[in-house]
Amino acid sequence: MPRGIRLLLAVLACALAIPAAASAKVWVVKGAGFGHGVGLSQYGAYGYAKHGFKYDQIVTHYYTGTTIGTAADKSVRVLLRDSVGNVTFRGANSACGATIKAGKSYVAKRKGRGVVLRTKKGTRVAQCGAAMTATGAPAVVIAGKGTYHGSLEARASGGGVDAINVLGIEDYLRGVVPRESPSSWPIEALKAQAVAARSYVLSSGSHGTFDVYDDTRSQAYGGVGAETAKTDTAVSSTHLQVVQYKGKVAQTFFFSTSGGHTENNEFSSLGFGQPALPYLRGVEDPYEAEAGSPYEHWKRKYSVGRISGALHGIGLRGKLRNVVVTQRGTSPRIVHANLVGSGGTTTVNGPQLASALGLPDTWAFFKKK
Q1: 3-state percent breakdown (helix, strand, coil) of the chain, nearest 5
Q2: Is the dihedral of CA 189, 52, 61, 237 positive or negative?
């Protein structure tokens, strides 16, 4: 037998004689849902609509003890840009008391404690004081952002200017509904979204110079570019309709996927431990599973090192040995849990745990394999 082959066989024999290393342990987290879990489930509303339920039935299911009423019309102030160096726009024919050309671009920029309006070439048009308001045309176009109904306000803020869109609530909703629910969804689900979104903005407190953000800190808003004929119909056919509880507009939180059951507001990431609201109770969501949400059920895997590292930020002592859930909500969402580490035990709440691990929801079960 050639020497090379003998050496190869010897190496293989040694390798076979070494016992296989034990496979590393991993933590498996299985759960359901996506979002804070409170109020209307958007995929659940889709399921209800597919089963023939009307928008008012859908809405009052998710908001316990509520009715549908009518609100007064009002304008909404939406923050589009926060403390930027300048705002370039076109589409208006009046700003700061000066007549401007709708087809040309202008720049609002911070100067001292106020805002100055210039042409795109830098020629000064007007000194506007603390804020510039551009109005007059059907819509205003903000460079790098989009097209919006109503007027544009550029207000001195921080070291720059805030860009705020001021418009009627119904035009605002035309840019919200298609960003929150796909326009391909059943019309009754879109109507339910319109009523919930309208109620949400009317029940939200002011942020000082503006009412709402244009993103998920409030609700997603895309302006004219987001509008579709079907979602416009959902808005117009529910004109000024809102969710009411004891005669007042309810704070109608909504989210993506419930996993089959929504949650009480006081157990959610909206503000853990906040006062319980009687219309934000956890309810069964029987048709959501048919709606096709990718988050109806989910699974995540973590190595021992990775999960321990992630949980150190919320107080885990040493390496993670166990997650003992001590309280769940009206759904299986975690309210409180003990992190049992090699150096001791730490108590955390469900939102802290989900945030530290990047979980889609607090509906979670832990197992080490």
Answers
A1: 25, 35, 40
A2: positive
Rounded Cα distance between 105 and 89, Å, is 5
Q: Which residues of the chain have pLDDT under 70?
A: 1-24
Q: Which of 170, 329, 335 is nearest to 239 (CA)?
A: 170
Q: What are the structural domain ranges in the chain? A: 26-33+292-368, 40-71+177-207+225-283, 86-158
Q: The whole model's pTM is what? A: 0.90
**Class of residue 57 by CB neighbours under 10 A (exposed 0-12, middle 13-18, buried 19+):** middle
Structural tokens at position 329: 């909500």
For tokens 């001292």, the residue is 112
Cβ atoms of 227 and 178 within 8 Å: the answer is: yes
Strands 40-41 and 254-255 come out as parallel
> Is residue 95 helix, strand or coil?
strand
* Token reading at 122: 């830098």
How would DSSP label each residue in 219-271? ----GGGG--HHHHHHHHTTTTEEEEETTEE----EESB-TTB---GGGSTTS
Instruction: Give the pLDDT confidence of 240-263 residue by residue, as tens digits.
Output: 999 999 999 999 999 999 999 999
Q: What is the pLDDT of residue 181?
A: 98
Identity of residue 252: T
- For residue 28, the cross-strand partners are 301, 367
Instruction: Give me the amino acid identity at 56.
Output: D
Q: The sheet that has 26-31: what strands, in order across it?
A: 298-303, 26-31, 364-368
CA 217 – CA 207 distance, rounded (Å): 12
Residue 315 and residue 339 in contact, taking contact as beta carbons nearer than 8 Å? yes
